[in-house]
Every structure is written in structure tokens, then in C-alpha cells.
Amino acid sequence: MKNHLMDRMTDLTDRGPGKSLLLVALLMGAAAQPGAWAQPGAAGPQGAPGAQGQNRNGMHVYLWGGLKSHGVGQHDYPQFVADWSKLLTEHGAVVDGALHAPSSADVEHTDVIVIYKGDAAYLSDGAKEMIEAFVKRGGGLVSFHDSLCGPDPAYFATLVGGAKKHGEVNYTLDAPIPYTVVDKASPIMKDMTDFTIFDEAFFKMTWATNPEIHVLATAKIAGTPSAGDHKDEVVPQMWTYEHTVPGGQPARAFVWMQGHTYADFANFQIQRTLLRGIAWAGKRPVDELVNYVAPPRPARGGAPTGR
User: Fold this and answer.
1) Which of 23, 70, 142, 228 has the largest count of CB atoms under 10 Å?
2) Is the pLDDT of residue 43 over 70?
3) What's the average model confidence in pLDDT over 236-249?
4) Which domain range does residue 104 map to?
5) Does residue 296 lie within any of the structural domains?
6) Is 141 part of any domain?
């Protein structure tokens, strides 16, 4: 198994630094899970065995990441793709992803695109065509932190409910984010309480108006130098957005404005809320990912599980 994995890694690095970074990370993650096993389900391309430990009947999630920016422990988009590809697989999802925007073919069978990439709202013509078609057919979007930053916030707000314009002083930098759960009845917020994390918030937002967002949690903006006169403003930090593109199917989006500090993704309350938000955006039962339990591992000497 080890020699086979190293051969695959050598082959993948010939594809260029961008793709090899993600693919090697995913292979290393798979190798680090000796407890994973093949589950029954559809075979892979050309009849290849299914991925070990993967719930072949799970919701399909595409992780749209990017190259890391900012300081140590901040905006670690590649690490997110590596970590959450494993986490979501362990929670019963079928996961794909890359450090660039997906193609239309990449998301043909995808339920949710999860975006964690700085300035992802700068869309190429191809990416714009892809995401509009995806949303029109009812695909779900999930946006974390500065993924909603770009040149035309009014446009991107029509996709995820709210967005910010690139280049404006519109951030607290590292600061306390004191959450107030506004919709305590929302099943997405089942494990969220009013508590404070250390991260970053935006305050000058462009919001969708028809329909409007549904606010899940707010925070009072900290009095940092960059916040200026926006100190103490109460701004949504988590929300959902439901809309229908003309001629299309109803679509959903879930947004968490934080993620500047990468460690916050591992916070128990945050992580379970994000898993529920992803499931909700994909029109699945909101607890599908949180409550997933993998079937027992086959006993040694049982049916072949592949190498």
C-alpha cells in the first residue's frame, strides 16, 4: 500500500504545483486513516473500487479552496480542503474539491459548493457561467469569510445573500466576535450559544433585498482602529438565503462570515453549526452530517476491501 501511494504521489506531482498540492494532501489524508474501509456502492471511473470509508449514498459536496494568504494560522484555504475533505467524508458526504473554481462538469452531480477562498467573488466568465447554472438548477452554496469579497457585491449578494466590495476598509482585523444567536429555533443553530471567538468581522455589507437574508446570528463590531465609526454596530455574522432564479429551481445559501483564524473551524459549536448549514444548503436533513454513523468495519478475512 505504501509503495503504491508513493508511486501515485510521484505521478500526481507531474501535473503542476497547484493541482499536486491538493491531490497529495488528499492522498496523505487517506493514508492516515487505517480504519477506513470500502463500503458497498457505485464503482468509480472505469469500474474502479469505491473510495475506502466513503458513504456512496451521501450528499455530494465540492470544496472550492485557494492558495493560502495572510499570516500563520490565518486564511489557510489549502488546509481547509485537506481537513474538511476528511471530516466531511467521515460524516457521510461524498467529497471533491480543488484550489480553483470548479468547472460545470465538476459540479454536475454536486449538491453543495463550499467556498473558502479569498476574493472568490472575482469570477471569470467560465466560473460565472458555472455558478449561475448550478444555482439555477437548485444547487446550494456555502460561503466562509472573505469568499464573498469581490468587485461587484450587489451581484454576488444575489447568490449568497450578502457580499462586500474588495478594496474598502471593511474589517475589524483580529478582534473578539461576540455572537448573539438571533434565531434560537433554527435547527442549524442547535449547538450554538451566545459566546465569543477571536476572529475578524466585516461591517459594510451589500445585502440582497428581494428576498432578504434570514439572520441566524449577529455580533457587535469591536472598536478596532480599522472599524472606526462602525464600533458597536450590530451586523449579521451567520445567515441563510433562499431564492429562485427566474426559470430555475429554489436554491439555498448558508454563510458564516468568520474563518480568518483557521483554528476557529475546529471549535465544537462552530464545526457542528457549519455541518448543519452545509446539509441544509444541500436540501438534506439538517442533522444528516452531524449524526452520520459509519457501518461497522468488516471483520478480517471477510469480503475483499481493495488495497
Assistant:
1) 142
2) no
3) 97
4) 2-24+56-281
5) no
6) yes
DSSP letter for each residue of 31-64: HT-TT--B-SS---GGGPPPPBT--TTSPEEEEE
How does pLDDT run across 155-191, given as a tens digit for each residue?
A: 999 999 999 999 888 889 899 999 999 999 999 999 9
* Predicted local confidence at residue 54, as pLDDT: 81
Q: How far apart are CA 61 and CA 97, in angstroms?
A: 8
Residue 236: which residues within 8 A CB-CB, separation 6 or more? Answer: 162, 205, 213, 215, 216, 217, 218, 257
Q: Name the band, by pLDDT with cuts 50, 70 and 90, for residue 44.
A: low
Backbone angles phi, psi at 57, to 5 degrees: -100, 10
Please report the DSSP string for 257-298 in residue order: ---SBGGGGG-HHHHHHHHHHHHHHTTS-TTTTTT--PPPPP
Could you tell me the CATH number of the domain that includes residue 155? Answer: 3.40.50.880
Q: Are 137 and 107 in contact (CB under 8 A)?
A: no
- pLDDT for 94 equals 96
Q: Give the whole-angstrom CA distance, residue 142 versus residue 63.
A: 10
pLDDT in tens, 246-293: 999 999 999 999 999 999 999 999 999 999 999 999 999 999 999 999
Q: How far apart are CA 116 and CA 113, in angstroms?
A: 10
Asked if residue 298 belongs to a domain, the reply is no
Domains in the chain: how many in total?
Answer: 1
Share of the chain above pLDDT 70, in %: 81
Beta bridge partners of 96: 62
Strand 60-64 with 112-115, pairing: parallel
Calpha distance 126→101 (Å, rounded): 9
Element (H, E) at 7: helix 2-13
Would you say residue 201 lies in a domain?
yes
Query: Do you know the residue count of the chain?
Result: 307
* Cis-peptide, bond into residue 211, ω within 30° of zero: yes
Interstrand relation of 60-64 and 94-98 (parallel, antiparallel or unpaired): parallel
